[in-house]
Design a protein that fits this description.
The structure is a homodimer of 363-residue chains. Chain A is of the alpha/beta class and 363 residues long. Chain A is built from 18 helices and 12 strands. In chain A, the strands form 2 sheets. Chain A has a 9-stranded mixed sheet with strand order 1-2-6-5-4-3-7-8-9, sandwiched between helices. In chain A, strands 10-12-11 form a 3-stranded antiparallel sheet. The two termini of chain A are 44 Å apart. At the A-B interface, helix 8, helix 13 and strand 9 of A face helix 8, helix 13 and strand 9 of B.
Chain lengths: 363, 363
């Protein structure tokens, strides 16, 4: 079956045809293109297609809107990836309900398949915001693509944390079109993000962020990721929906603990009680994901660590030590040692405990 | 085999004979009393008994110190429970290494077998102290005996929380003699505690709190409890030793989550990763302990809840509501509803979420 971008865009523009209906249409009519030429009466013979959907398909076909959408996307520099074509992310192809098309501003690279999602509440606490930025930085710093949803709160800080590292990559999966970034205050962040990752959406180029879009959007966040870490979530947070998607998709679920006095940690504690893994550091996440544990080993192999950093790591040994004591023992200037420790910390190879640094044991 | 208190006290006073050696002595000599009359050369034939222990046994026997110890305990109002007698706690009898004797100031009652231990670091944070007091109050409020170690920090607040409820019971297991309470600032607390529970120790009446005593003491804390909840613990806290004892003894282990920015929650997060159950409320603990879950059901049965409280619980339903809204809906004075909610909260039947109250779902 040849994939025809314009037909998939047209079916997607109806907002009523997902992968399951698309498959049935192809089975009945041979291709999406033939289905779009079929009369309403024929369309309605397909199980699951009634008055509403059949009208929408016929209307789309007549309107020619798909061709205009494709042209506009091209003029905006937005790619459209079609389900069933080589550029379409393998991690989404295997979902139960993959998006028919994926609008991408920026670029999805091979290495973005090693993604970890950071998600959480819009009503985050200062603790949650700090931790989102920290995990975003730590994960991106070791070469993991940070996936999130560009929402206010946790998502924003997770993207920012990733962009704060020298070559950190991050993907934002939107509940609106990639040319209708929401919330408005994140438009600058979205622009920077598209240069170091991508804005991704299954919704039409200029689709508004309708509330109904977000739960569906969440399945793409988890779908693009090997695992998801919930930073903060109230008892009814949308982040818990993403965790449900992740479990259904066989992705690993992690949760950050917090104060039991904070309602924003209720959801993460619930997840831990249900079997999610408690994560305190990026290393806790990487160790549990086979594909990423090998990255972690790769990054921390002698080749990837500078001679200076190697000296500092050797000096640390298994103990927690201050930069000052490492400097004294290694006869290096303290400022040099501090800088090396900070670089190692940014890559998750050492952790700071107050004034002390400790090497992260490798998986 | 008849149990002879004076002989057990004598063997215990040596500080070198535990349950295993006691058993071997009885096997060889017929009774502890006969062992105490045996010559050194005979004692040394028992595997595990060398110069030091045999000398100590002979010396104890000659000194007559045990009779004096028993007399002093009696004059102080301290009971001594001997291993193998009916008054000795059943929960300790089944341990691998039960104390030979147990000094008790106050009283161990039948219901104290439904104990839950609250343990944690001496260097606790304000968060840990608040939570220790809260769990102490919530557990004691539903009739659970709170077991802890009278140490500074978490232990102190756990006992205080239990004593703060109208009939709350609490046991303090000491690392010193019950007539040598440590730390000194807790002597007043110890006095109040002995009236509503007991001070318990296997160490001689006036034994000083030697550091080596505390790890051994911890096995009695977990041994007297159905489960233990670690409130806060650094990575090398003694509370983790208690958790190890608890796991070895088949007790349920619970841990309170906290901020990943707090070193005092590292130990509890480690426990959760190793399989301890995450506990946010007293109900989380009770639900997992069959013997206590039935208490919880008993307390929350219609008979144990007053008609007013029943009205308030019914009004709450499955939702989180303010006292004001429950008052409005039930046409009761707000002050009456608030007081009922507080009483229900103290018994773990509702939880407060800021200004909101929510009924605790029953196991």
């Amino acid at each position: 079956m040849e994939v025809d971008l314009e037909s998939l865009v047209a079916l997607n523009l109806t907002g009523l045809v997902g992968a399951a209906l698309h498959r049935r249409l192809c089975e009945r009519f041979g291709s999406a293109r033939s289905a779009l030429r079929a009369p309403r009466s024929e369309l309605k013979r397909v199980p699951g297609i009634g008055d509403l959907t059949s009208s929408a398909i016929v209307e789309q076909s007549r309107s020619g809107a798909a061709a205009i959408e494709i042209e506009e996307a091209a003029s905006e520099g937005v790619s459209i990836l079609a389900y069933g074509t080589p550029g379409y992310p393998a991690s989404l192809s295997t979902l139960h309900d993959p998006p028919l098309v994926l609008y991408v501003r920026g670029a999805l690279e091979e290495r973005d398949l090693l993604g970890v999602a950071l998600v959480g509440s819009r009503q985050a606490t200062p603790y949650g915001l700090r931790q989102a930025a920290r995990f975003g930085g730590e994960l991106a710093g070791v070469g993991v693509t940070v996936v999130s949803g560009l929402a206010r709160g946790i998502d924003t800080e997770a993207h920012r944390g990733a962009l704060g590292t020298p070559e950190g990559r991050t993907l934002a999966v939107l509940g609106s079109g990639v040319a209708a970034v929401y919330p408005p205050e994140n438009r600058g962040l979205a622009r920077r993000l598209a240069e170091r990752g991508a804005l991704v959406s299954e919704f039409p180029l200029r689709a508004a962020p309708s509330p109904g879009n977000f739960p569906r959007r969440n399945r793409i966040i988890s779908g693009l990721s090997l695992g998801i870490l919930v930073i903060e979530a109230g008892e009814k947070s949308g982040a818990l929906i993403t965790a449900d998607w992740a479990m259904e998709q066989g992705r690993e679920v992690f949760a950050l603990p917090g104060s039991v006095e904070s309602p924003m940690s209720r959801g993460t504690h619930l997840l831990i009680r249900q079997g999610a893994k408690l994560a305190e550091t990026a290393a806790d996440v990487l160790e549990e994901l086979p594909a990423l544990a090998s990255i972690l080993r790769g990054v921390s192999s002698p080749a990837a660590v500078s001679p200076l950093e190697r000296t500092v790591l050797r000096e640390l040994g298994g103990k927690a030590r201050t930069a000052e004591s490492v400097a004294a023992a290694s006869r290096l200037p303290e400022v040099t040692v501090s800088a090396a420790l900070d670089r190692l910390a940014a890559r998750g190879l050492v952790v700071c405990e107050g004034p002390l640094f400790r090497a992260v044991p490798l998986a």
